[in-house]
């Protein structure tokens, strides 16, 4: 996802952590996992490694989930690549408009996805809301990728619909329907309630939805933990609420291994397991070779952004388009070409080694 800020600001992280108690009273009582429960849950799993996943044939969440473009064959093939690496966890974005369009069909496709992932020995981390990229999602045929532009078709959720009358009851129905349907499903590792709240210039305007989605999830009380990842250390109020109300701490960090380690050392002060749900941007110094071994040593879950090069165009950097669409010498994200050929064999070899393959 695009980062508006990635200089490491340890003083601000400390301020966010120490001010977090100011928001604790907003959390529904008795439901947030205590550190002991969170750590016991984490200990039951192998070290979590994997990727954020969308099939190469989809430009965004709607193209992935709508009936006309749900591509089970590609999902199966590409999750096979993941299994080959020893990946055991994939993070997958949902979209409320796909649910609104066809509620039974949407949940049926979620179940189909989970069956494919489970066949490949992969658990799934589903994401509900997102403040990144395009704000005007529309049901139906999705646009073609813009040549050489990173994530040109990715969609916020709810995006501009947050201004619509009655949107909160609709979003509540969506979250509760999906959570209730899958609340006991062991194929699901964790529910990521909100990706990068405050992004796209929203900042604290995203707080009302963030608070509501945590409350909705607590009312359903799924077996799986819930979380919302920290990502911009200057967003003190959002960070405090996310950290205090998450069962396990998830976060994003696209910096090099030394800066990333400082993030981990500070976030460990919460006493809960850590899962990095986005890292690996080669031209920013976040690479498999330097970051992934550090994450394993720290026992922090490691999910990189980007898997198979495709319609999301994430081989291109966030703010550095290539107008002629030529392949960048250094891919920004992604591991494989569509045919399963690795971008860099030495990276694949390292990932397999770290995963015991």
UniProtKB/TrEMBL annotation:
SUPFAM superfamilies per the UniProt record, alphabetical: (Trans)glycosidases
InterPro entries: GH
Annotated signal sequence range: 1-24
UniProt GO molecular function: hydrolase activity, acting on glycosyl bonds
Designated name of the protein: 1,4-beta-xylanase
Lineage, broadest ranks: Bacteria, Pseudomonadati, Bacteroidota, Sphingobacteriia, Sphingobacteriales
Keywords carried by this UniProt record: Carbohydrate metabolism, Glycosidase, Hydrolase, Polysaccharide degradation, Signal, Xylan degradation
Gene3D superfamilies with a match to the protein in the record: Glycosidases (3.20.20.80)
Domain of life: Bacteria
Single Gene Ontology BP annotation: xylan catabolic process
């Amino acid at each position: 996802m695009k980062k508006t800020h990635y200089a490491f600001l340890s003083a601000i992280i400390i301020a966010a952590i120490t001010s977090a108690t100011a928001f604790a009273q907003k959390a529904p009582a008795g439901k947030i996992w205590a550190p002991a429960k969170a750590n016991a849950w984490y200990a039951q799993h192998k070290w979590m490694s994997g990727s954020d996943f969308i099939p190469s044939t989809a430009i965004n969440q709607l193209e992935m989930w709508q009936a006309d473009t749900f591509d089970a064959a590609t999902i199966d093939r590409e999750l096979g690549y993941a299994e080959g690496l020893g990946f055991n966890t994939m993070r997958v974005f949902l979209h409320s408009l796909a649910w609104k369009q066809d509620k039974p069909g949407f949940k049926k496709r979620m179940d189909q996805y989970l069956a494919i992932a489970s066949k490949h020995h992969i658990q799934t981390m589903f994401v509900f809301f997102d403040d990144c990229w395009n704000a005007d999602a529309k049901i139906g045929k999705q646009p073609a990728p813009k040549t050489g532009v990173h994530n040109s078709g990715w969609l916020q959720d709810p995006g501009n619909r947050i201004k619509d009358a009655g949107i909160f009851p609709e979003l509540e129905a969506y979250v509760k329907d999906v959570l209730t349907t899958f609340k006991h499903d062991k194929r699901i590792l964790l529910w990521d309630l909100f990706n990068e709240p405050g992004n796209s210039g929203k900042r604290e305007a995203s707080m009302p939805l963030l608070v509501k989605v945590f409350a909705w999830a607590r009312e359903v009380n799924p077996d799986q933990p819930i979380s919302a990842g920290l990502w911009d250390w200057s967003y003190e109020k959002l960070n405090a609420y996310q950290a205090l109300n998450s069962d396990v701490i998830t976060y994003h960090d696209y910096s090099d291994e030394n800066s990333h380690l400082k993030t981990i050392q500070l976030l460990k002060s919460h006493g809960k397991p850590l899962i990095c749900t986005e890292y690996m941007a080669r031209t920013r110094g976040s690479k498999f070779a330097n970051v992934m071994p550090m994450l394993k040593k720290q026992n922090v879950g490691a999910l990189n952004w980007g898997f198979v090069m495709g319609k999301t165009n994430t081989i291109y950097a966030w703010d550095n388009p290539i107008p002629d669409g030529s392949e960048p010498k250094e891919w920004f994200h992604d591991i494989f070409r569509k045919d399963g050929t690795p971008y860099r064999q030495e990276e694949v070899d390292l990932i397999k080694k770290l995963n015991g393959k």
